[in-house]
């Protein structure tokens, strides 16, 4: 049976998850398992593995997906425990590292202002956009990422060239910059040889042989495997050749290429003949007969290294390089035996296929199913090919595929020799020789029992400086019975001699280059700077790649990358298109947040709602959130409607009230449509008193009902006589008294001042308003006392204000509404101007699209519950009070009120800090009017940018009360809730359409 576990917003790089999959699969009771991110490509892998479920279909690219095939559900718990421990170990290691971690480009460039390179190891489907971003920031790029579309590679390499930058890759497995290893790289001595190579293990093989011969490398510039295709034109290779020609410490240039397009090969050769330095070039698949001018043409990777070292040390280049083998062949295999090459290195596999084909006259086949050679029983397979690595770690990391292939090969009775490579270096398996040892020894035992002659011949690509220990790897293989040679070419030669054949290398002389030499281009200042400085790298992807850079003197920071826009390709494209208008949009947003920042809200009065909201004439009720029909309202909002009907005298009983509400006699209007806001249900009727807040900047005015206090209250859906009586008292006493007091204050009550003071005293203005409520009481009490009214009413009003800790919440809501309605008059940009919910949907509006609503199903809050209640009792989120978050307080300013965090289920101070730091990532700016001492006196966040929300997947966190889902039960707890991402995605798409951007 299949069991699925989705860990939302838990992004991990693919290699870590592949290794985790291997660990999980070893657990007893697990038939089959897979742990991957929920990308479309990975969902296809789940399908092909018969591990696809409905839950997998719903996962996003930022969700970690675990699928387990088991007969015992208890095994799933073990899998989850293993996964949690694995990820915890990664986290502990990360915390112990000295490397700086960032989560976006802005942070990355701030943390490493002198960065000159970005190293990418992220899924290829997303790599092109990020590479382009790095190029636009003036960074050279090293792209370990593969599966980048060819048209993107061409475009990006052309862009890099025009900017004077190097784009190394895509699918660039290894590199050395200023003697510092990059990605899957061996550690070699510094020296005077510079390599430009179109492949990974080609560079590794040559550089490690150079090191063992006593030479050293200064640069090894990878180009990616497609650079010498005709469509690409060798852009990176040509620019790198020019760079090394002008790089004084480089005395010898080495070129390594898989079979290139003839046109590009000829262009590269023309360029090489124009350089002043000696060059060694190998184009795999070619068997050169001569050297040309200053370009020495090699046949094998070993010969390439040997010539380069001789040139670097000032020695004469020999006519032939063919050193004796380590193993003496005394007996050859009988006729009919074949060779099986099981390679983790693609270039090493290509070299094996080339030499076997040449010597044994076996024609190379197309690279089908990973095979480079598959004819007459002879096979050479690149186990690093996509067909083997899709959803699995590379064979340099994970031995499983090769173990299975060894077993498969030895079961073929024609197999006389298995060829293996063991590739060492950073990123590779910590002890591949020992990992393969059991399979090797089992293969020998299988052959012995069958009384067959059988050999395994191997080479170790590495140096004594590599973390795996070169000598130990060689010794382990020899102890297992493997014949080990010093290079891949020698291993192949030994295999051929065991077959009774011999590789012959004819002597090569130097012939003059007869053609006219081309003029070399000038080196770009950026390439010159890169080649003459220590790399400072923004590592985007695999954290392990920072280790070698830091160890050998480079500087690296870790960009904790995750897919933009949740990996949604349509939204990514829209964001990229909007980025082309970034300056214009940013200017518009600055105007909008300027209005938010410059707002001057004053509390002017308290009046009956009908006196300022004419739409309330008749049987009309205002409600919270975007538009909603009565039948779709949840219990608390319907209960509030009943209470309002009873309060207004439209009905004498609940039954009569519900009949009128259900029959359509009562009209409903969102509060937001009439310059008003309302808490929870938001139900406002004609005779309810409302706070009047005026934004003195232009007279924009907003309204909100007053806080009813605690206990059974209308806003939570209660409608008993007690509730109606309190509303009546507020209409007859509280409202008129406060109205008279406020009218005596010349110019009204300055609310900015109260907010600024209260935020320093621990209020965040949604769940905690005690400081602001007391300041308000302090401001109005003297005036109330001076009023010529009944002393009993004075005392009742003051007592009520003193006992109502949340009284200021409703004032804050009116403040927020007055601010956003002033800002909304600028109908430009991507700043969010409304956040609200009605129990059914969450609604968002943005500045550039005016009154248009963008909605999605609302979430249910998470938090703490009063005694006797659980999440089963909770109503979906409800109310206009998220206007506080819209203007940067409430959940957006959690750090301002660490005392309330546990009450809303957010933990302690660190969690509050984390929330505010997270909310800052989706904000345009900070509000200098409302500074927060516990946040190092930074201002509260200001202006939620819908682009940033969609890009990061971070949605506003809202502090909220939790209402019982049954009308009249009231508040059952408090907590936090996230705005649904879909609202913001819809708004972004609509905004892009408004700019004429195609969104399909």
Automatic annotation (TrEMBL):
The record's section on Pfam families has: AllG, CoA_binding, Ligase_CoA
ATP-citrate synthase/succinyl-CoA ligase C-terminal domain residues are 342-495
Q: Which GO terms describe its molecular function?
A: succinate-CoA ligase (ADP-forming) activity; succinate-CoA ligase (GDP-forming) activity
Q: Which GO terms describe its biological process?
A: tricarboxylic acid cycle
What region holds the CoA-binding domain? 190-285
Cellular component terms, GO, for this chain's entry? cytosol; succinate-CoA ligase complex (ADP-forming)
NCBIfam families, alphabetized: PRK06091.1
* Official protein name in the record: Acyl-CoA synthetase FdrA
Q: What broad taxonomic lineage does this protein's source fall under?
A: Bacteria, Bacillati, Bacillota, Bacilli, Lactobacillales
């Amino acid at each position: 049976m299949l069991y699925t576990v989705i860990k939302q917003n838990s992004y991990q790089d693919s290699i870590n998850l592949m290794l985790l999959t291997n660990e999980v699969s070893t657990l007893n009771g697990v038939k089959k398992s897979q742990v991957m991110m929920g990308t479309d490509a990975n969902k296809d892998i789940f399908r092909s593995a018969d591990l696809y479920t409905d839950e997998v279909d719903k996962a996003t690219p930022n969700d970690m997906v675990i699928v387990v095939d088991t007969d015992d559900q208890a095994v799933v718990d073990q899998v989850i425990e293993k996964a949690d421990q694995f990820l915890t170990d990664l986290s502990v290691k990360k915390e112990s590292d000295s490397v700086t971690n960032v989560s976006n480009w802005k942070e990355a460039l701030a943390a490493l202002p002198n960065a000159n390179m970005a190293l990418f190891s992220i899924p290829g489907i997303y790599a092109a956009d990020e590479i382009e971003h790095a190029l636009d920031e003036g960074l050279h790029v090293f792209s370990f990422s593969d599966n980048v579309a060819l048209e993107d590679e061409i475009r990006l390499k052309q862009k890099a060239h025009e900017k004077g930058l190097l784009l190394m890759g895509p699918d660039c497995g290894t590199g050395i910059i200023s003697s510092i290893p990059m990605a899957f790289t061996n550690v070699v001595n510094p020296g005077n040889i510079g390599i430009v190579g179109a492949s990974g293990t080609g560079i590794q093989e040559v550089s490690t042989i150079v090191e063992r011969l006593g030479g050293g490398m200064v640069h090894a510039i990878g180009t990616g495997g497609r650079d010498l295709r005709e469509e690409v034109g060798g852009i990176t290779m040509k620019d790198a050749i020019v760079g090394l020609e002008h790089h004084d410490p480089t005395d010898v240039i080495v070129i390594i290429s898989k079979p290139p397009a003839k046109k590009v090969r000829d262009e590269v050769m023309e360029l090489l003949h124009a350089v002043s330095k000696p060059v060694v070039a190998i184009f795999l698949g070619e068997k050169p007969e001569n050297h040309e001018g200053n370009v020495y043409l090699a046949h094998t990777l070993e010969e390439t290294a040997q010539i380069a070292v001789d040139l670097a040390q000032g020695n004469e280049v020999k006519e032939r390089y063919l050193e004796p083998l380590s193993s003496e062949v005394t007996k050859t295999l009988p006729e009919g035996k074949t060779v099986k090459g099981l390679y983790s290195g693609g270039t090493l596999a290509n070299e094996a296929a080339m030499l076997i084909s040449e010597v044994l006259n076996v024609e190379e086949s197309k690279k089908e199913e990973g095979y480079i050679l598959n004819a007459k029983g002879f096979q050479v397979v690149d186990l690093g090919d996509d067909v083997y690595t899709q959803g699995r770690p590379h064979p340099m990391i994970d031995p499983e595929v090769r173990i299975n292939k060894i077993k498969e090969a030895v079961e073929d009775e024609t197999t006389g020799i298995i060829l293996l490579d063991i590739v060492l270096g950073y990123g590779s398996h910590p002890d591949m020789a020992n990992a393969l040892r059991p399979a090797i020894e089992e293969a020998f035992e299988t052959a012995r029992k069958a009384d067959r002659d059988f050999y395994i011949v191997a080479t170790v690509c590495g140096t004594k400086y590599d973390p795996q220990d070169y000598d130990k790897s060689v010794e382990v293989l020899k102890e297992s019975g493997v014949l080990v040679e010093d290079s891949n070419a020698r291993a192949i030669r030994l295999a051929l001699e065991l077959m009774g054949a011999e590789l012959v290398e004819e002597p090569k002389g130097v012939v003059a280059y007869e053609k006219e030499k081309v003029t070399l281009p000038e080196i770009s200042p950026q390439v010159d700077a890169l080649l003459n400085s220590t790399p400072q790298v923004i590592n985007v992807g695999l954290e392990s790649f920072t280790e070698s850079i830091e160890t050998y003197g480079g500087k690296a920071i870790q960009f904790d990358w995750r897919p933009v826009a949740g990996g949604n390709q349509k939204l990514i494209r829209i964001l990229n298109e909007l980025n082309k208008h970034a300056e214009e949009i940013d200017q518009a947003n600055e105007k909008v947040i300027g209005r938010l920042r410059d707002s001057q809200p004053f509390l002017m009065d308290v009046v009956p709602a009908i006196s300022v909201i004419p739409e309330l004439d008749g049987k009309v009720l205002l409600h919270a959130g975007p538009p909603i029909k009565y039948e779709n309202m949840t219990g608390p909002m319907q209960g509030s409607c009943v209470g309002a009907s009873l309060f207004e005298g439209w009905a004498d009983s609940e039954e009569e009230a519900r009949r009128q509400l259900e029959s359509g006699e009562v009209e409903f209007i969102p509060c937001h449509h009439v310059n008003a806001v309302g808490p929870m249900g938001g139900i406002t009727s004609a005779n309810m008193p409302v706070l009047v807040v005026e934004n003195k900047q232009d007279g924009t005015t907003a309204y909100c009902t007053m806080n009813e206090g605690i206990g059974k209250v209308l806003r939570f859906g209660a409608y008993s006589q007690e509730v109606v009586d309190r509303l009546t008292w507020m209409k007859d006493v509280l409202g008129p008294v406060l109205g008279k007091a406020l009218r005596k204050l010349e110019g009204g009550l300055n609310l900015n001042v109260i907010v600024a003071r209260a935020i320093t005293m621990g209020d965040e203005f949604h769940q905690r308003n005690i400081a602001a409520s007391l300041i308000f009481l302090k401001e109005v009490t003297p005036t109330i006392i001076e009023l010529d009214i009944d002393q009993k009413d004075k005392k009742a009003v003051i007592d009520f204000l003193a006992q109502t800790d949340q009284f200021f919440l409703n004032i804050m809501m009116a403040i927020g509404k007055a601010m956003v309605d002033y800002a909304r008059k600028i109908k430009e940009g991507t700043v969010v101007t409304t956040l609200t919910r009605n129990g059914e949907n969450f609604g968002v509006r943005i500045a550039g699209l005016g009154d248009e609503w963008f909605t999605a199903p609302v979430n249910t809050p998470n938090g703490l519950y009063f005694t006797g209640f659980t999440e089963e009792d909770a109503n979906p989120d409800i109310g206009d009070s998220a206007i506080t978050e819209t203007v940067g307080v409430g959940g957006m300013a959690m750090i301002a009120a660490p005392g309330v965090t546990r009450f809303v289920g957010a933990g302690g101070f660190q969690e509050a800090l984390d929330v505010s730091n997270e909310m800052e990532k989706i904000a345009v700016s900070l509000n200098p009017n409302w500074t927060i001492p516990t946040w190092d006196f930074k201002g509260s966040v200001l202006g939620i940018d819908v682009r940033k929300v969609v890009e990061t997947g971070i949605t506003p966190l809202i502090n909220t009360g939790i209402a019982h889902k049954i009308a009249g039960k009231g508040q059952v707890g408090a907590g936090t809730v996230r705005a649904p991402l879909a609202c913001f995605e819809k708004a972004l798409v609509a905004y892009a359409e408004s700019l004429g951007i195609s969104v399909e």
